[in-house]
Specification:
The protein folds into two domains: 143 residues, Response regulator (Rossmann fold, 3-Layer(aba) Sandwich); 135 residues, Response regulator (Rossmann fold, 3-Layer(aba) Sandwich), CATH 3.40.50.2300. It is elongated and about 60 Å long. It is 46% helix and 18% strand. It has twelve helices and eleven strands.
Length: 328
């Protein structure tokens, strides 16, 4: 009887030990999962520049030893050009308790900044964070938002227009009226164009469905179009190019992806490099080496600017590329 009792006690002890061991493993597993740094991404729309920014961001993290699914977890979301969706995504990323949020393009950045004042937010592909109400100043953000600016060399881009289309007298600036990012560039481009002796006509759309009609309305009225880094226009660039190129109307663009989609030329930033610059900022935050409130908005250096010319489009439009502008 004593032997049976002793055996029962030993069996019970072993069972309790096994259960305790399982509990320890589960706790260790939970602790390991909690150490994974969570990054939520809110990208406004799919087009070459924003896609390149995101890829650069991911690659910079990986180069620093942070890989999605290993020691960080990235929740990538795309609003497909819809502001209400961008707002919904922002709320989701906050409710999911991400440790950091990457906002790609101004409307997405504004959505995230409105959704939280606590979670660090890095923005990219935003022309003027201060002008868009995202930070107190670009030099000293003072809150939970910082990041990188895609401010283009607008004056140089207008100069490029005059070199490629030297007979141009009247130009249109094509942009989406709902993007503060674009309005800033419109003002800069207007000043640069007037200084170059050009007459400027603003051609705005409120959504992508209006692009074709607005571009068609410019035929015969202007000699060239300038399209800044506007997300709606960039996403709809194939439509812009089809109408403009079929009517011998050159389009100077804000970034290379728009040129690849049918624009004539640009002199601008490399969005992949811009994304990498943002990724370097993220690494500093992950390591606890910096915080957004004292992290200045950063810009790509001048040596990262590139000239991109669509020679096929130039040939179609009968434009001769000056020798000093020819790319390798």
């Amino acid at each position: 009887m004593k032997k049976k009792l002793l055996a029962s006690i030993l069996t019970l002890t072993l069972a309790v030990s096994m259960l305790a061991g399982c509990g320890s493993k589960e706790t260790a597993s939970s602790d390991a999962e909690s150490e994974v740094f969570k990054i939520g991404v809110n990208q406004l729309v799919t087009h070459a520049a924003l896609d390149a920014s995101y890829q650069g961001f991911v690659d910079a993290l990986q180069e620093a030893g942070y890989e999605d699914g290993v020691n960080i977890k990235i929740d990538y979301q795309n609003a497909n050009g819809d502001q209400s969706t961008a707002n919904t995504i922002a709320t989701k990323l906050v409710n999911d308790n991400n440790n950091l949020i990457l906002s790609i393009a101004t409307p997405s950045a504004q959505a995230c900044a409105n959704a939280t004042k606590d979670i660090p937010i890095l923005v990219t592909a935003v022309t003027d964070p201060a002008g868009s109400g995202l930070v107190a100043s670009n030099e000293a953000p003072g809150g939970n938002v910082s990041g990188t600016s895609d401010l283009n060399p607008v004056e140089e881009q207008i100069s490029l227009l005059t070199k490629l289309v030297p007979t141009a007298k009247n130009i249109a600036i094509l942009y989406c009226s709902s993007e503060s990012n674009s309005k800033i560039q419109v003002d800069l481009a207007t000043a640069a164009a007037k200084a170059a002796g050009l007459t400027v006509q603003e051609a705005s759309v409120s959504n992508s469905n209006e692009i074709q009609q607005v571009v068609q309305s410019l035929i015969g009225k202007v000699d060239a179009i300038y399209a800044p880094t506007d997300n709606t226009i960039a996403a709809g660039m194939p439509t812009v190019a089809q109408v403009a190129n079929d009517n011998n109307l050159p389009v100077i663009c804000g970034e290379a992806g728009m040129v690849e989609a049918g624009g004539l030329a640009t002199y601008g930033i490399d969005y992949y490099e811009l994304g990498k610059l943002t990724g370097v900022q993220a690494v500093k935050i992950i390591k606890g080496e910096a915080t957004t409130d004292t992290m200045p908005i950063e810009y790509l250096p001048k040596d990262k600017l590139t000239l991109t010319i669509n020679e096929e489009v130039a040939t179609k439009l009968g434009i001769t590329i000056p020798a000093d502008l020819k790319t390798e």
